[in-house]
């Protein structure tokens, strides 16, 4: 694997300025972070995939190095989808797209409303709680996280959020350990940046991003291949069942990815290999 130093850029979009990083060469692969995450969480897989793709990772509006022009408002999946569309239009059409968690919801919205921009989508563990047979428990859990944030702040809320999504156990990274309070297995600089987004996520993102309901019919008729990725370590958890429910509605087979909901952090090599295999038609 050759080393690819990222080129850093910014793109002005309505109401914000997006920070993004470009590595490698080949067809464009846009990596969409979820929730409070930013481009840094994908460093490991972006580096490994840059031998095959022009990898583009970015900080979603309001996170880290992508400042909003005005005051924070409720986050909207369609607005994030428009940002992703503008970014693809800037770096190269059509693009392969990978999204994790709420970033998978953004990818699904992108395919629904901007299908000509997307070559193929891998939606990794989309939190489609509206697709569960009985979403009431997860909805109540999400509201409990939000109420905990209002009462006790971002730290207390993050503990509940990780527990709700089965992330409190964590998984051992390739080649070393990571502090238990850093579930993303990021380097300290990235973790410090991402943790600075927790307030914005809990106050303006958690509820609207998780209540997004994919338009299954539009996805099925879009002409864009959509693959649902599920973390091997998440079998039996609600987050796994949500993604599985979407795959069943789309009548597609889900693909097992290494690790848990954030498996790209501790398992970058195996995760990148799996993603490349999916996009390469394997």
UniProtKB/TrEMBL annotation:
One of its GO terms (molecular function) is triacylglycerol lipase activity. This is Alpha/beta hydrolase. One of its GO terms (biological process) is glycerolipid catabolic process. Residues 56-75, 166-185 are annotated as: Disordered. Pfam families: Abhydrolase_1. Residues 27-155 form the AB hydrolase-1 domain. Keywords: Hydrolase.
